[in-house]
Amino acid sequence: MNAAPSPVLVIVSGLSGSGKSVALKTFEDLDYYCSDNIPVNLLPEFVRGVLGERNEGRPQRMALGIDVRGRSDLSQLGQWRQSARDHDIDATLLFFEADDDTLLARFADTRRRHPLSQLGLSLPEAIVRERELTAPLRHEADAIIDTSRLNVHQLRRKLITDYALGHGGGLSLLFESFAYKRGVPAEADFVFDARVLPNPHWDPELRPLTGRDRQVREHLDAQPEVARYVAQLEDLLDTWLPKLGSETRSYVTIAFGCTGGKHRSVYLAERMARHARAQGWPDVATFHREQD
Hints:
This protein is of the alpha/beta class. The protein is about 40% helix and about 20% strand.
């Protein structure tokens, strides 16, 4: 019998406005147990309580946010991570940052207050001070992710493919939806055209919804063309995806495109992801390029 995989812990840290909230939401969408703003000195007890061996229903994946809001000595993290490894917990630290101009623009766009503004610092001063305070975390990080040139969609996809997938002990599957008018994803391994299917866009009640909504799912489920399309897809993927497991790759991207990337492609990506999970694939994720 194979040993149970070690729990996976991702620590999300970095500068305010650099994308930490997007990162935690992405991990949460992938069924990670997530918690934000944890003081470093409380980490050992908190993680043991959630991932500890005595907790039979423990989650296998956790993502925690740590930053200057915790008001603790961030330099303690390195020592704690070593302790976590001694207890067979794989703790990966991701540090998010962006250049000053990008951070200033993001704070201006969202009109949020910087966490250190309460110290009487101007926004530029607060950014400089935060860089100083988080320097120990940046030095300790397994990966430094500069989001200056990444939009939300690009950041989500990077997190899914580079850090969230690959812990299931086998080939990971990413089912992606997209709009043809914005181009085919260059990284897709398989691409399927959903424009041949009935378009819910022409139903006024369904138009504002997406392929993740129950009404759209039920509408498409009832279409004979859709049932035939899905059956053929399932047979194709069930036959050939396992063949890729022997290659030196960690994940495969299966992309579905339609006109707007809102209804049919989203529906297919979600439906095929559910089918893959039911077939026993250990690591399955979805990404909706025009919707996420």
